[in-house]
Design a protein that fits this description.
By secondary structure, the chain is mostly beta strands. 0% of the residues lie in helices and 43% in strands. Strands 3, 5, 6, 8, 9, 10, 11 and 12 form an 8-stranded antiparallel sheet that branches. Strands 14, 16, 17, 19, 20, 21, 22 and 23 form an 8-stranded antiparallel sheet that branches. The radius of gyration is 23 Å and the shape is elongated.
């Protein structure tokens, strides 16, 4: 998508009400406008460090970028989550549209936001995402390579933008209202170095507590490349009562996986719970003696040191069920998704 360009001057941005976050400031604008007049969908991949809702879309409009524009939010696999038509546009500058209903988004998941320009002539900045993304608090326009290329487009009628050229910023972004920021015990950068070769079906779990009341929204676990099959995440009370369960979907080949329960589960402060996942073909991550001398703390969450409430690093072989056995205080790399409200 080579660019023929012209200069464009800034115009006023419509006022936004409420606690609505964007990636770019109102004063940010492209210095160059493409002379390409072809019909095109122009997009941006982004993530949030917090759960929240996407309320709509905005884009920077050049004076030659005429016609009926639509804004769309997409999942990473190209499913359209919401679309709305822009109205009452100014001749140039930032334009904004709201969806009929806000769309919930989850922390750390990749989404794409785009607008359709039927006559092209769009704002563009080449190589904007080559070496870095664009961060604005908890919102992030991704650096190319984090989740494929960023700065994406699709020529022709409205459709999911999957092509990319020179990591170009096409000056489109989401309008986001952030909610409670989830917590986990391990960071995304934490990872095991060893994986079991045992292929037997097994439930693998972790005992944890929180310093405060809150809700468990779901489960996550670290997956090795040989840990295949359908995985199920479960929250249990200390007596083995099943408090919530969900099946993982859209897993990557390896790395941290996450699933949310249909409804968050309330948990009490200073109370032991167990979070687990079922690995039907074994080959799980394991770090022996992880909980022998210390637990793992990420306040207000705590993976318990073995001995605080019997052994930690728990499992049960066979069908999915409450994991009660323990071996060598092993960390099986299963974690909780927790919020304080």
């Amino acid at each position: 998508m080579p660019l023929q360009t012209s200069w464009q001057f800034q115009t006023a941005l419509p006022t936004r009400a409420g606690d609505v976050r964007t990636i770019w400031e109102d004063a940010d604008e492209p210095g160059l406008i493409a002379a390409d007049g072809d019909e095109v969908e122009l997009g941006l991949k982004f993530r949030s460090d917090s759960d929240g809702s996407v309320l709509g879309v905005r884009f920077y409009k050049a004076q030659g970028n005429v016609g009926a524009h639509t804004g769309t939010l997409w999942s990473a696999d190209g499913s359209s989550l919401a679309t709305a038509a822009f109205t009452a546009e100014s001749a140039a500058g930032w334009q904004e549209v709201r969806f009929g209903t806000a769309v919930p988004i989850q922390w750390k998941k990749t989404y794409a936001v785009s607008y359709h320009a039927p006559n092209g002539r769009y704002g563009a900045t080449n190589s904007a995402f080559t070496n870095a993304g664009k961060d604005s608090g908890l919102l992030h326009a991704l650096k190319s390579g984090v989740s494929g290329p960023n700065g994406v487009f699709h020529y022709g009628p409205h459709g999911f933008p999957a092509d990319s050229y020179e990591d170009t910023n096409y000056w489109v972004e989401p309008l986001v209202q952030l909610g409670a920021q989830p917590r986990a015990i391990w960071a995304d950068t934490d990872a095991p170095t060893l994986f079991s070769a045992d292929p037997a079906s097994v439930e693998l779990g972790l005992k944890f507590r929180s310093d405060v009341d809150g809700v468990v929204a779901g489960v996550r676990f670290y997956k090795g490349t040989n840990n295949t099959g359908v995985h199920i995440g479960t929250l249990w009370n200390a007596a083995g009562g099943n408090l919530g369960s969900a099946t993982f979907a859209d897993e990557s080949a390896s790395g941290w996986q996450e699933v949310r329960f249909a409804a968050p589960v309330a948990v009490k402060a200073n109370t032991t719970y167990v979070v687990s996942y079922y690995a039907p073909n074994g080959c799980f991550a394991a770090t022996n003696n992880a909980f022998t001398s210390v637990g793992k703390d990420n306040a207000p969450l705590h993976a318990l040191r073995s001995g605080v409430d019997a052994g930690n690093g728990v499992f049960v072989y066979g069908a999915s069920g409450f994991p009660t056995q323990s071996f060598a205080d092993t960390n099986y790399w299963v974690d909780v998704v927790f919020t304080t409200g």
